[in-house]
Design goal:
With 492 residues, the protein is of the alpha/beta class. It has 4 domains: 193 residues, HUPs (Rossmann fold), CATH 3.40.50; 100 residues, Glutamyl-tRNA Synthetase, domain 3, CATH 3.90.800.10; 112 residues; 55 residues, Ribosomal Protein L25, Chain P (Beta Barrel), CATH 2.40.240. The protein contains 12 helices and 29 strands. The strands form 8 sheets. The protein has a 7-stranded mixed beta sheet with strand order 12-27-28-29-25-26-13. It has a 7-stranded mixed beta sheet with strand order 23-18-19-20-14-17-24. Strands 4-5-6-7 form a 4-stranded antiparallel beta sheet. Strand 2, helix 2 and strand 3 form a beta-alpha-beta unit. Helix 1 crosses helix 10, helix 6 packs across helix 7 and helix 10 packs across helix 11.
Length: 492
């Protein structure tokens, strides 16, 4: 249960308010999930508010993408508001503040205004009469360069709180409105305060990085005599690699071919996590574990994977041989090998009939394993048998070995917990597949793309299936083609 001070069941109204400048990422998930949970736990309402009043930061694709990603997360909203459809509303409230004498219209150059502010001096427009400011307000519809500023204390210790802007005129075309005329756009603090009041938001839940914005919005509440919502600021969740969530960097990377799209395996967008096979309930559990504490934390992919593994641990196991290299085993007997689809569940088995020709069997092992071998080494083919290396020149593309019967490898002695000596057989285990009996596979991982062969049983896989390749990790089936299966890496 998320504890909200003075919250009454059936009366709580919260909002999730993304900017459609790109697709949602793991950082957005925290605000979306926490607000959604509050609405559900208190039998309240969640409003989805698209804050798109900065035309230079709008991506038309993002409107639909945001809704799709939220649905995938299991977030349910009761009402949707798009701020670009409400420009007249914000303009009217800005005008009311001017009429009250609590705001003025200014066209000072930015550097000049900044210098006055730092000197704790007023802008010339600040002292104009209400009538003069209203005339300048009318000019905003025909003349560029005007801004509505709210009147605050010139001696505010925090300079950003001094006469901050509320509304601006811009000729920049809004991608959604397709307007090509001078338009009055509210800045965030005006549109947010007005909408939070009109929509009767009871609790504003957001990160501590919005503390200054909260103080700014309180000026607007005070001047209009509105009751303030309950402001709750949780700790900042920093993400080690900002390039995985930065909308501008992702857009640039897509344009330059660095990323394949918003769902590229390297990213932490919700689209990318979905494509990798991360369960949305795992994301929800992770965010609920963080809660609304005001302690700053760093996002942990490992902690998310811990939650996600609960949902995928019971999936089928298979073999994948990355960068395969041939292994010929001489004196090999007929053998039928069965591997369980899962060691802890009775799903059944995968069966390999190993029938030698001229007492030889040809298998595939990973090149990375083969490169560690030398003549005389003994290895154990996973859950099968031991072989002794006769020739390990990997440049020829094939390793030669002999079948070894009733051998467990050399003994190694170690110290036990209580100081007693323990011995065990020290022999490396190596993955294998029959040569010519697999399917080409490609696995897109955050650190690389792995090419190789997966076992023939994988031919029955369908798109979105999640499996575990033993010793490699969990993967989601992305595309199934005639002679190739493409996977997205999920986690270890």
């Amino acid at each position: 249960m998320i504890e909200i001070p003075n919250a009454e069941k059936g009366k709580v109204v919260v909002r999730f308010a993304p900017n459609p400048s790109g697709y949602l990422h793991i950082g957005h998930a925290r605000a979306a999930i926490l607000n959604d949970e509050i609405a559900k736990q208190y039998n309240g309402k969640l409003i989805l508010r698209i804050e798109d009043t900065d035309p230079g930061r709008v991506d038309e694709e993002a409107y639909t993408a945001i809704e799709d990603d939220l649905k995938w997360l299991g977030v349910d909203w009761d009402m949707k508001i798009i701020q670009s459809e409400r420009l007249t509303t914000y303009e009217n409230f800005a005008e009311q503040l001017i009429e009250q004498g609590n705001a003025y219209v200014c066209n000072c150059e930015q550097e000049k205004f900044k210098a006055l502010k730092l000197a704790k001096m007023s802008c010339p427009h600040r002292n104009l009469t209400t009538e003069e400011n209203l005339k300048n307000f009318e000019k905003m519809h025909t003349e560029d360069g005007w801004t509505v500023r709210i009147k605050t204390n010139l001696n505010e210790p925090n300079p950003s709180l001094v006469d901050f802007p509320l509304l601006r005129a811009s000729k920049e075309e809004h991608p959604r409105l397709k307007n090509n005329v001078l338009t009055l756009y509210p800045l965030m603090n005006l549109s947010v305060a007005v909408d939070d009041h009109l929509l009767e938001i009871t609790d504003v839940l957001r990160g501590k990085d919005h503390l200054t914005n909260t103080e700014k919005q309180k000026f607007i509440y005070k001047y209009f005599g509105w009751n303030e919502p309950n402001f709750i600021h949780y700790g900042i969740m920093s993400i080690g690699s900002e390039g995985k969530i930065s909308k501008s960097e992702i857009k640039k990377g897509i344009d330059e071919g660095k990323f394949t799209g918003w769902d590229d395996v390297h990213l932490l967008t919700l689209r990318a996590l979905k494509r990798r096979g991360i369960n949305p309930q795992a994301i929800r559990n992770y965010m609920l574990n963080l809660g609304i504490k005001d302690v700053d934390i760093e996002f942990s992919e490992e902690a998310l994977y811990f939650e996600n593994k609960k949902f995928i641990e019971s999936c089928f196991r298979h073999f994948f041989i990355e960068d395969p290299l041939g292994l010929t085993i001489e004196n090999f007997p007929d053998m039928v090998v069965r591997f369980p689809l899962h060691k802890e569940h009775t799903y059944g088995f995968r069966t390999f009939d190993l029938v030698p020709e001229n007492n030889k069997i040809n298998l595939l092992i990973q090149k990375s394993d083969a490169e560690k071998l030398k003549e005389g080494d003994e290895i154990r083919l996973m859950n099968t048998c031991n072989v002794r290396i006769k020739k390990a020149d990997t440049t020829t593309g094939r390793v030669i070995a002999d079948y070894v019967e009733n051998s467990h490898g050399p003994m190694v002695e170690i110290n036990g917990k209580n100081g007693e000596k323990k011995k065990f057989h020290n022999i490396p285990k190596v993955l294998w597949l029959p040569e010519g009996g697999g399917i080409k596979a490609k696995i897109y991982c955050p650190e690389r793309t792995a090419d190789g062969i997966c076992e023939i049983a994988c031919k029955n896989l369908k798109e979105n299936n999640i499996i575990q390749f033993e010793t490699f990790g969990f993967c989601r089936v992305d595309k199934v083609k005639d002679n190739l299966i493409e996977f997205y890496f999920t986690q270890r």
